[in-house]
């Protein structure tokens, strides 16, 4: 297995986590010979504390805003990067890959794209944090510690879940949840991904088998949407992992799997 020397990797976080939560990943990828970067979403501040203190700066940002934000980052690089995304970041990674703005992508517990029809009750429960009130659409929404425990830390010891909540959670725009919820009703949804792109780079979908927010069945349904494309689309499931799999004590196992896949699939 080989590592593309100096290849850029752009990490994209999802809702309710700060970009700094990728720090262990960026350090590992740098040690492996890549050039990683983990920009925050548009409007997000440089630190967790600043982002918590200024939720208005991230409010009302939609999927298209986030895609264009990362597209601008990519345009500033000297070559197409690998994009690694978690949750809504996984949807963003697929958008960028489908638009030929990435050489390859790893989508970890990715938010459902347009075409995924059935969502399990646990996913609807998490999304209802924002969707319960239409007025939330333009707001930034924060999680309570209890909501984080259900949506992210359900497979973790209570103390670890609480520690991760205190360390990494930030307010996030509710608009992407509304856009994903209505994706299959909209003719031109920002949650649409070019799953039929025949010339795109390789894609790895990673599922957490015990994830409440994006259950493995949702990730598997996403995988089926790529059946019309001959481009590489692989699926890896971590049976006992929840939505916190990129930030909890087992993050290294997931990161090593991503690195091994990249060394095999991306030349």
CATH superfamily: Alpha/Beta hydrolase fold, catalytic domain
Strand portion:
5-15%
What number of domains? 1
Summarize the main sheet.
6 strands, parallel
Strand order of the largest sheet: 2-1-3-4-7-8
Secondary-structure element pattern, one letter each: EHEHHEHEHEHHEHEHEH
Given this structure, which CATH class is correct?
A: Alpha Beta
- The CA-CA distance between the termini, in Å, is 10 Å
Would you tell me which CATH topology applies? Rossmann fold
Rough shape?
Answer: globular
Describe the protein's architecture and organization.
- With 267 residues, the protein is an alpha/beta fold.
- Helices cover 37% and strands 13% of the residues.
- It contains 10 helices and 8 strands.
- Strand 1, helix 1 and strand 2 (35-37) form a beta-alpha-beta unit.
- The protein is globular, with a radius of gyration of 17 Å.
Summarize the structure.
The protein is of the alpha/beta class and 267 residues long. The chain contains ten helices and eight strands. It has helices at 23-31, 48-53, 63-75, 88-98, 121-131, 145-151, 158-168, 175-181, 216-224, 251-265, and strands spanning 8-12, 35-37, 82-86, 104-108, 140-141, 172-173, 203-208, 233-238.
Name the features.
two-stranded antiparallel sheet; Rossmann fold; 10 helices; alpha/beta; 13% strand; 8 strands; 267 residues; 37% helix; six-stranded parallel sheet; globular
Task: Tell me the layout of helices and strands.
Blueprint: E1 8-12, H1 23-31, E2 35-37, H2 48-53, H3 63-75, E3 82-86, H4 88-98, E4 104-108, H5 121-131, E5 140-141, H6 145-151, H7 158-168, E6 172-173, H8 175-181, E7 203-208, H9 216-224, E8 233-238, H10 251-265
Parallel strand pairs: 1-2, 1-3, 3-4, 4-7, 7-8
Antiparallel strand pairs: 5-6
């Amino acid at each position: 297995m080989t590592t593309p020397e100096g290849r850029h990797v752009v990490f994209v976080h999802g809702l309710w986590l700060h970009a700094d939560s990728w720090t262990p990943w960026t350090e590992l990828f740098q040690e492996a010979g890549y050039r990683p970067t983990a920009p925050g979403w548009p409007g997000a501040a440089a630190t967790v504390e600043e982002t918590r203190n200024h939720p208005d700066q991230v409010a009302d940002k939609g999927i298209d805003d986030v895609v264009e934000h990362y597209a601008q980052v990519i345009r500033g690089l000297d070559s197409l990067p690998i994009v690694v995304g978690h949750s809504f970041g996984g949807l963003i990674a697929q958008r960028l890959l489908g638009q030929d703005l990435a050489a390859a992508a790893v989508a970890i517990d990715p938010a459902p794209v347009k075409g995924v029809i059935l969502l399990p009750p646990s996913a609807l429960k998490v999304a209802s944090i924002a969707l319960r009130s239409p007025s939330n659409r333009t707001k930034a929404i924060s999680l309570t510690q209890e909501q984080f425990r259900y949506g992210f830390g359900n497979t973790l010891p209570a103390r670890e879940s609480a520690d991760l909540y205190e360390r990494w959670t930030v307010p996030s725009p509710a608009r992407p949840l509304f856009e994903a919820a209505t994706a299959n009703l909209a003719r031109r949804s920002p949650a649409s991904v070019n799953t039929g792109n025949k010339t795109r780079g390789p894609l790895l979908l990673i599922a957490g088998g015990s994830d409440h927010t994006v259950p493995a069945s949702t990730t598997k349904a996403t995988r089926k949407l790529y059946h019309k494309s001959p481009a590489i689309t692989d699926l890896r499931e971590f049976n006992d992992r929840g939505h916190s799999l990129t930030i909890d004590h087992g993050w290294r196992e997931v990161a090593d799997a991503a690195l091994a896949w990249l060394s095999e699939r991306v030349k």
